[in-house]
Every structure is written in C-alpha cells, then in structure tokens.
Amino acid sequence: MNKVEKRHFRLYTSRNRGSEGAKFIRLFEVLDGMKEYNEEQIFKKARSIKRSQLANLKAHLYGELLVALRLLHSDRNLDIQIREQIDYAKILYNRGLILQSLKMLDKAKTLAKENGHYLLTLEILQFEKSIESRHITRSLKGRAANLIEETVYYGNKITEVVKLSNLSLLLYGVYLDTGHVKNEKEAREVEELFKKQ
Questions:
Q1: d(CA 153, CA 150)
Q2: Residues 14-32: pLDDT tens digits?
Q3: Which of 75, 103, 122 delimits the end of a domain?
Q4: For the chain, what is the largest distance between any 2 Cα atoms, rounded to a whole number of angstroms?
C-alpha cells in the first residue's frame, strides 16, 4: 500500500474503534512497521493480541483493507461505481422500494451501456426482468418486449467479445510458442487456426 492508501485506511478505521477494532488496527500498525512478516514480532509488539486471535484478526484486517481501498478507488474505476449502483438497487428492492430500485438500475444501465460494460448491462437487465416478472410496476407499455430485445442484443455482444478474446488469447499462445510469423507457411497455419474457431 502507498502512503495515501495507508492514511485513508487509518481515517476509515478511526470511526470504527472498539476493543476488537483496536486490535485489528494495532495489527495493521505492527505489520506496517515490518519489513518481513514475522508472527513472533507481532506478539512481542502487540501484547494484546493472543495467538488464538491472530487468524481472525488478519481476516478481519484483510476485509477492512479491501473495503477501504474500494472506497478510495471507486471514483477511478467505473466497474466499481456501476456495481455499487446495482448493490444500492438490490438494497432498495429488498426494502420494498421497487420503483426506486428500477430508477437506480436504469441509471446504472445507462452508465454501463455508454461505457461498453456488456456483462454489467446484462446483469442489470436480468435484475430488471426479475423485478418486472414478480411485481406489477405499471411500467411503460412494451417494457417486457424491450427487456427481451435488449437482453438478446447484449447477450450477442458478449458472445462476440468472448469469441474475439478467445482468438486473441489463442494468437498470443501461438506467439509464445513460435514467435512472429516468419514465412507464408506459418501465416497459413495461423489463418487455418482462426478459421477453425
């Protein structure tokens, strides 16, 4: 972790201080001061941590680090922002706020579509279909047909992306095995490989 991330983590955890919280924060401070991981040093420097607690404290620290890093970097990662909106929509849905959930999903879907995140778009569409099939939302006329059409469209897009990424990986494997194409024979072999796919 860099200095900014460590500072953010300390600020993030400072609001969750309890006796157990103090221990995982203490563990973080001890680990941060180490050049190499050494459990005996942990027990010497943090006497409040018992051997039986260490595994749980490390797991808790790991989870808290991931949450803090997600919060810190969410503004730089569009995937995280879209998933966050999907999560919020699920929370709203679980609270019975169906229309608000659909609004949140619509915002997330627009963002996902505009930025070429087809898998997230398809995930959102599946959630919308699930909501529409379970609840009478009095949505726009033809909503079911639109959802089906969009799902088919983005399903096909994903299939295309998967095929192209598989071909790219296959070509990379050939490159690792043989290097650059050096003659007509190797070029034909690569073309045949592509045609088989």
A1: 5
A2: 876 654 557 888 889 999 9
A3: 75
A4: 71
